Fold:
Amino acid sequence: MTDRTSHLELEQHEKTFLDSNELIINMGPQHPATHGVLRVILKLDGEKVLGTECVIGYLHRGVEKIAEHRTYTMFNPYVDRMDYVAAVSNGLGYCEAVEKLLSAEAPPRAKYIRVILTELNRLASHMLWLGTHALDIGAITPLFYTFRDREEILKIFEKYCGARLTTHAFRIGGCVYETYEGFEREVKKFLDFVAPKIDEYEELLTTNRIWVERTKGVGKISAKECIALGVTGPVLRASGVKWDLRKAQPYAAYADFDFEIPIGQNGDTYDRYIVRMQEMRQSLRIIEQAVGKIPDGPIMAKVPKVMKPPVGEIYHSIEAPKGELGYFIVSDGSTQPYRVRVRPPSFVNLQALDMMVRGQLVADVIAVIGTLDIVLGEVDC
Amino acid sequence: MLDYITSYLKSDTTPGQAGNLLWAFIYIVLIFLGLSVAVIAMNWLERKILAHMQVRLGPMRVGPHGLLQPIADALKLLIKEDIMPAEADPFVFWMAPLIVVITAFTVFIVVPFGPAHAVTDMNIGVLFMLGVSSLSVLGVVMAGWASNSHYPLMGALRSSAQMVSYEIAMGLAVISAVLMTSLNREGVGTLSMIGIVQAQQAQHVWFIFKFFPLGLIAFFIFAVAMVAETNRAPFDLPEAESELTAGFHTEYSGFRWSLFFLAEYSAMIAVSSIAVTLWLGGWMRPFPNALSGETWDRVFSLIPGLSFLFLAAMTFYSTARMPKHSYFRVQTIGLAGFGVVLALIGLVLFLPPVRDRIQDIFWFSAKVATSMYMYIWYRGTFPRYRFDQLMTVGWKVLLPMGIGVLILTAIAGVLL
Structure:
């Protein structure tokens, strides 16, 4: 893959002495701002970007292939490793997809626990995004603030299921762990703690002149282009499309809650920032409602120990922090899936990079990679 | 010989003016040492202050509260392998850090730490400082070019464009301050650094407050331009870590890299001292008018000693808070020792002969230190400008502002 000639190099034409020299720069896979191992080949005219090409696959682990050699239960922890900053969402998507395949349904209490943890995870994911995005744009302080507050979420995860990052919190059919003593109280305490912290981040950035100048009008993408490329999540909503799977196709217990879908108008980096900040506040609202009316009862549905879903296929998608996370599972009636295809939102959203940065400056490439909120574990699967 | 040495001590001028080569040499050595210590201290302070702004502790392991960290870093850099890229131009690669560091240190010849505390007093002092400090861009471009690599090249391009364009706004702000020095009976201004401070003394006003708000605006322009000139946040594009990894010194490592580091910090101190000299009254103590008179002079002369005693007290407070465990015994003793040293310095500063001689230097350094603190504060607060926005700020905002302030200052000088 690395040996292959980039199409950017082939595009070069005959030069006259009036032409400025085009520069081809290799950004990544080892680069502080490509969020892992993304490699972007940039064609530059001075500071102006003439074209980009993403080279991915440096973190490819063949998750989908692994699934074909594992039972449905055994594959569950693997999905946490895809978008490792939002592992709970990945787990939720997979468990619900298999449940659909089995025609099983998680009990209400399990659904509420799922919603609480998933929304906490959304907060954690957005906090990490905010910190790294701001760091890319040059503001180093928000990173430490967001990591300080994300720590509280991870503590709740740790207390709930023992793991902080790759949680494996849910099982097919519900949850395996009952909430610990004082879970509701601690989550409520966290909500009170984090709401003013979000104001604090906004204070540092939202009206900061340099921040606004660096993000307004940068990496614009229209609703039409978003839909054409399959871009979902906050990126799509910032372009003005009110599409959120939590509302459009309610899963888990989302139908029970009252929340809004924040949207933007311009589809630029600033709008995406605002949308995500508001989404964090909406997540707080959802968690507050969920903790308030969490029902009692069992947390595990009756699912067979050895799962043999009937022959068939299923596509189930959820609203992960980064966009639509879908699982397409084909069952041949055996204990192992015949095929699992993951629709990773980061991978699909990354397609838009070239369109968003063409004609802009090098610094904007960094800002756009940050605003797309990609996780390379998920891009490469 | 002894006469030669002592004759200078009785004079009231700089060694350069007195023509005393020996003392000029001593001053140069003192400034060089002082500057190196200041850079080392800045390294520690920046990491500590920035860390505390960012809810973390910063260096804590090497020495008590990380006090020995900069020394450990310096040692590490010295013994590191000296790497030069195979494709680099060896001579230019070798010259670049030298040019940067030499220009950064040379400007300190004219920095007036006190009416007699400078190596020399040139009649073109300000011009000399601006001229020599802008030479450092040459070293930066050389470093970027000689590395023969894309990222350093782009960093060098950015920094040359940036330094050149901000120098204009900077120069305009400086001229408006120089104009203010000509508001005396003879109507003759001065470019001499000492002369500028003396003009503020004679006019009984720091130029930042002169023709309010004109002086303030000129100072603001300079304050912005000097951050850009030294390539610091929010104008740190040439070394924008998230974009260009490390900008023009990406390919440099070890001792050569440390030269760039040294140059960056001494350049920061240098431009801060220009700002202090031109607008903040140089070596003069604060409130020379509102709190004037013998008594206040005496009170203010105690502040250097008191501030060191305060630092010593803070250190002792930290010492008391050290964990009571045998593992931390050496560190606790070290911290207490550091406190004792600070307290001793504080006590020595109370001795009348020292007190009188150190006054100017203390106030000058305190003002420069405030400016350095602002540098750290900016770094903790602001995102980075984009290249085109940086140019917009330089050419479309600061330059017109500078011209306007210059014209208004001239008009005010004629009318008032």
About this structure: The radius of gyration of chain B is 22 Å.
